[in-house]
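User: Some background: our group keeps a shared notebook of sequences we're curious about, and every so often someone picks one and asks for a predicted structure to add to the entry. Today it's my turn. The entry only has the sequence so far, pasted here. Could you supply the structure so I can complete it?
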Amino acid sequence: MKKYALLITVLLAFTSLLSAELTKVQLWAISLTGIMTELNRSNRSSLNASAMDERGRNTWVEVLRRDWGITTREELLGMLDSLEYGGHAASFREIQGILNEVNGARMNLR
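Assistant: Of course. Here's the predicted structure to add to the notebook entry:
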């Protein structure tokens, strides 16, 4: 039953996004976080999860500290670099390179 409720919630969120005046890229970016947006009761029509006032800023500072151990700007930038260039992103780029080689080899065989 919970699966159906979650599916309906996601579909309703997606429907509300379709009526918003956002670009396809913005809609795609928002849809990546659709389930978490609903669970957190965040804004469905903006890439900002909450208002960027003092309260919102304090909330995100606390989330970064609690969930990621980030307490300084330098730590944040380091983590962003790590996410972009290491970990799963690095693995993805390696797989992408292999697929590009395979596709290139196929094209040469034709």
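Suggested note for the entry: The mean pLDDT is 77. The chain has two domains: 1-49, 51-110.
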